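WARN retry 2 of 3 for item q-0093 after timeout on previous attempt; input resubmitted unchanged.
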Amino acid sequence: MILPVITLEQLISASAGALRLAPGQGAGHGPAAAPITGVHVSELEDPTPYLEGGELLLTTGMPWVRGGAQAYVAGLASRGVAALGVGLGPWARAVPEAVTEACREHGLALAVVPDGVPFQNVSRAYWRLALRDDTAGLRQAMGVQAQLVRSATRPHAVTELVRSVAQALGGWAAYLPSSPLDGAGSPPSAGAGASGAGSGTGASGAEAGATLWPPTAGPSLRVLRPDLARLGRSGTPAAGTFEVNGQAVVAHPIAGAGPARGFLVVGAGRSLSAPDRDLIATACTLLSLRVRQRETLASAAASLGSAVVLLLLSGFGEAARLAADDAGLGPLPERVRWLCLRTGPELDAAAALALAPQLMWEDGRVPSAAGFPHRVDDEGLAWVPLPVAAFAESGAAAPVSGSAEDPGTGAPAAPPAPELPAWAGGAVGPAQPLGPPPPGLREAALDARHGSLAGPSEGRGGEAEAWVAALAGFERADLLGTARSYLRHRGRWEDVARELGVHRNTVRHRLGLVAQVLSVDIDDPDVGARLWLALRAHDGAGSAS
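OK item q-0093 returned
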């Protein structure tokens, strides 16, 4: 238990006459106003080995009868005793002048206990004061704790919790989540725009994603961000203390299902007491519960959203609308653009969705897909039906920021690409009514260059058409006819030579040219199948014209 501050004057007032200042002691200042840490009784000539300092020492005067008052008082003062109380009675009918002078010389407060008054009355008065103040402090702490619990039940619980902590400590507080979905906002609904930002964060700009109170503490938070990032990467959830503008700021980890989900940062501008630390521990627990609740809700919403996207991929648009409404995902948009992203060997859909705005796209930049319903198929592709309105809100039609012309070629130069995983890439479909994705989008996503987004026409079908065009444009030999005959006869050179009326060495030479022109091996089953279909389509288009 932490004892409250009780002065000698307060104890005298509460003692009901059991203790009073000795003559010559001034009230309201000096030694009499010093705090005392307890009441101790001793008749030893040297009680200092049993004292800690700060006490009111009560004695009947026996010690200085046997020894000198000067040495006795000097020993008490050197030990840090706050006050000396003399019990009047057989040993001292009045306070000796030598004791009064010694106390004045050494700055020791002097009090008297009237004759016949038990010393225990003074001790009881002290502990009544201590209990009264401690009870008041306990009631205050319980009131603040109750306020925190009430804050956790309100709509903007994170904002309310941070505000309550800051106001209770008389400083500032902030919650920095490791993921936007752990913050004060809400994820966008199925038909929402790209922003999906929550309200009540009290932060913007450099404090985006943080919940801060008061907002004027933003500069302190900006200074801390690099240190908090390093603390979050340490892998061990632990509190950290940092110095900002000469004051200690403490960052407390918020636990979740795994690594820390963020930090509650507190700048009180003073030393924290035990009740302060209890308050912060309660706030951290409530934030952890809130984060885990959001994780559970997000997992359930992701499962429901995946089912809705599967219905769309399967062509059941009306069923998808009904399922989204029943699941509370909000109304599906009328018009969408399908986003198809590779998710890598770990099938990390969350990472793929977060990286989408960083991928190069000829029409600009796609909006953030985080929080929208999505589904990962058997090929590791994440499918997201993004509302067309989300592209308009993100300014997707504008050129990619940072692009410029290459001074050597005049062509648009690619801006510096961020560090992206080797699997990053995908495809974007055209604007369409809500329904299945366009043909070729899957192939385009699988074949898209690293760090870029292709369109449906840039996929495997478009690549095969380019192969046909390259063979048709070769003027030194009939590579188109040779490739067609070779695929038709399933690689039998003699049959190809007989059909074309050339020597089989000529066939071998032409096939080598085909490999050089296309930079592919047409004996590869996937390549051969795509090239054969493109040749059939080319022949059909030629006969139709």
